[in-house]
Structures are given as C-alpha cells and as structure tokens.
C-alpha cells in the first residue's frame, strides 16, 4: 500500500451527518445515544456535524439555535423531491461559504449553518438533543446541496427494516412477514424492486458528490441490507451488523472510525478520485467505487468489474 500526503490544505472540513433510527427499545436507544456522545469527543473540533432522526416521521435537527431545540419534520411515508426538500429547509448552493479546515464557521445564518456546525460550536447543543431522544430520509439532500464534492460521511444507525416510504422493505402490518431467501430466489418479493431502485438512485447521487454512506445495524432481525447494499458499495462506506447497539462489536467498531494518526489526523480519506496513466490499458476496477465515465485510449477491450472508463 502506498500512502500520500497532499501538500495543499483541505479546502473544507470533513462532514459527519448522523442519521438515527429512533424506533428502538429503551436500552438499545440509550446505548446508541451514549456511543454518539462519546464520538463527539473523537471528531476533530473543526469538523462539521449534523443530526437527522427518523421513525414514522423524519426530523432534521437545527443546531444553530442555542435558546431552544428546533427541527424540521417530514412525513416518513411521503416521497419528497430534492427540490422540495431544498425549499423547505431553505438550502441553496449559492448561500454556501464553506470554511477551510480549522477555520471558524462564518456567522451568517445561511442554510447549512443551521444544520451542520463545527463540533466545537455545537457539542453542548447536540449532546442535549441526543440525550433527549425518545423512542418512537432526507439526509443526502443537506450534504449534497450545501457541501457538494466535499468530504462527508452519512452515518445511518438502523434498528430494523424500513416500513415507510419508497425504501420500504416490509410493511408494518404483522400479517406480512419479511422476505425470505426463497422469496428472493423466486422473484416474489413485494417491495424488493422498488426499494432497490430507490436506494440505487440515492447511492448514485451521494457518490457523485464524493460522500460515503455507512450502515450500522443494531437488530436481531433483518434490516434490509440486500436492498440497501448499493449505498455503502458505491460510496465506500462501512457495514456493521450487530444484535444491538449495546454490544461491544458495535461500540468498538464505530468508535474506531475516528482513530487518528501520529499527526492527529483522522485515518480516513474523503472524496478520492482515481485515474490511469496513458501507458496502460485498463479493463476495469474491482472495488467500492463508481465510474467517472471518462473515455480514453486507456480503456481496454475486455471489461472486468467497473469498466469502460479510465477514471473512477
């Protein structure tokens, strides 16, 4: 493995967006809350963080309000267009002025600053929101609109299968069991094709912006990973499956995400691109990436993996 250290400074700080399922039992939700609170002390103070919680409703939490907690609520069973969400949250790429890594966030109240703030500015507020979470899908629009082509991780914490909206894996009616391997083999899964199409569309949008989607599951039963696999696969995210968020498997693997090197930098890369030299004929790439659609003389005739391009 070859490691590179870029001489130019980062153009913008990394972004961590927590997407938390609140349909958990009390002990499981408390364990997840505790792990998220600990992670805030491991994330660089200049990194931007945000929080979305979802159950039957989805709440996008505003972190720029010191006086009280504020959130925007979306119905979980309705599919919103990207434009609708941007308008409702008053997000616009023209209002974004991303600070460089280590620099303070500008004070003007543009759209992103209400939802994504440096840890050092919102740790107290975010900790309070997390500790107040009670039992009870819009995440990529915030990062996509306000920080396109900027290093970001959308970290999803699921406590079960999706039962609402276009990404539904199983309905919430007890008479409908979750699909089995035999159902998948017989191509008789009721929600499968629609859900796969939905998640593939999300994966394409997220990967085009250089963002990664991580899936953490804390559930004894299935969470619909088959339908959602395109999200981590296309974005180089991680998948961690555990029986609950109280297990050491989840806690250790999640907090390990924020390990740092001897120079106090996170041991992770963001928004990487890969190109080939003119001297090579490339059949394709095998791994977690997407095609950049670059046609050149380097493209080989035989396609292996993600081919027909010389850049990813």
Radius of gyration: 20 Å
The end-to-end distance, rounded to whole angstroms, is 18 Å
Helix content: 25-40%
- The residue-averaged pLDDT reads 81
Secondary-structure-derived class: alpha/beta
The total of beta strands comes to: 8
Question: Could you list the spans in which at least 5 consecutive residues all have pLDDT below 50?
Answer: 104-110
Largest sheet: 8 strands, mixed
- Give the SSE order as H and E letters: EHEEEHEHHEHHEHHEH
Shape: globular
Beta-strand level of the residues, as a percent range? 15-25%
How many helices in DSSP terms? 9
What are the defining features of this structure?
single chain; 312 residues; alpha/beta; 8-stranded mixed beta sheet; 9 helices; 15% strand
